Here is the input.
Amino acid sequence: MASWDSIESIAAAVQSGSTTALEQVERALRAIEEGKEYQAIISTISDRAIEQAKMIDARIVAGEKVGSLAGVPFIAKDNFLTFGSETTAASNMLRGFKAPYQSTAINRLEAAGAICVAKANLDAFAHGSSTENSDYMTTKNPVNPAHVPGGSSGGSAAAVVLGMAPFALGTDTGGSIRLPASFCGTVGLKPSYGIVSRSGVVAMASSTDCIGPLANSVADAQLVLSVMAGRDELDSTTIESDIKTTVSEVNPSQLKVGVVKEFMTKDVDSEVRKAVQAKVDALKSNGVQVVEVSLPSLTLALACYYVLVPAEISSNLSRYDGQRFEHIAADAKDLEDSYVSARSEGFGREAKRRIMIGTYVLSSGYYDAYYKRAQLVRTKIIKEFEAAFEKVDALVGPVAPAPAFKLGDNVSDPMQMYLGDVMTVGASLAGIPAISIPAGKNESGLPIGLQIMAGRVQDNELLALAKYTEGVPS
Here is the structure.
């Protein structure tokens, strides 16, 4: 678990010649091999990564200008389309699929000199909160392998904590970056919806999917985000972005932070509340004004999320019909049999569950009762967040109601699994930026994360507060 220097330091060392891109890539590949028992990685991209590293080193020797991330290895969740490896989304449905193009996020990172060395494990099609729904393997928590790493970006979070790369990419639909960051003890950032292009990323729910980094520090997360951010003609939901490359300084006496009342109830694990409160008290003692803020509709956010997101999932997964991509029912009697057989074999239990729920809530006779009503609740949640950010600069609270649970504990209880997202789905439904930073550990040594949320497109301000909070001892 050897730690890496900051991303900025690694790139500077490569550019100065004190190390090489090839040495950094080889170090990452060694760490991946040494940590294979944690099952964080589905596949490596070693040949292409080594070739890219040699090209960067040759350019530096020739005196050419290289990008701000030159020689920095990274890992992508395996729902990002990449060259040099399969893209499977950890599902049998895509086993063997080789992408015809790369995601915009990967292209922008590579243009800056970063090198993708591997693809990380996830819950199949990103459906899950523990990385136990992968069709390939179950990733283990790097702090305690008897526990889950969180999901669905569990492989990415575990890889960063295990020192396999300085940063990894994840996707966050309802908490899938923030939850594993909290469970594993690293930084996980969900930017505002539309800040990073979703082009070339296997879709889960198109109205909440966000691309973001998992990293060792807030500063590293901001640098990575600044490279990926901005409009993309391949994704009409992207927006103009002014994400800074470095984190701004803050004046604590000018900050007002709200503690979310609904996130600090007795239903939350006492050690989680204690760790979060310690961070809040530390901010207060350093001059930050702290108040309690209530968002009453947050109690409905989870139910709202698990109506809207399965509806979008059922639509997005309809393209996997046994006629395209890799999984084709070779022995089908006719077209209908091909559809049924391919989906029966290719989709796992959780994907089938969400397809059924989504199709149900969109069906005639139930659309108004469920889907339309959930959209109305979503609007109410958005308005409550907007009203809160008129009074405070940011909102804070736990990422999850408890630290990482043991492997297998919730596999047979979908409702219990879904409850792990209860504190993260609100920010996803509202499209606002949110981040998880380490807040301490419980008595068993399991990490606890602090969640910080800011107003829509206030990503720079969120990161500035997160970095300040990161450095305040609690």
Notes: The first helix runs from residue 7 to 16. Residues 318 and 355 are 9 Å apart (CA to CA). The radius of gyration is 21 Å.
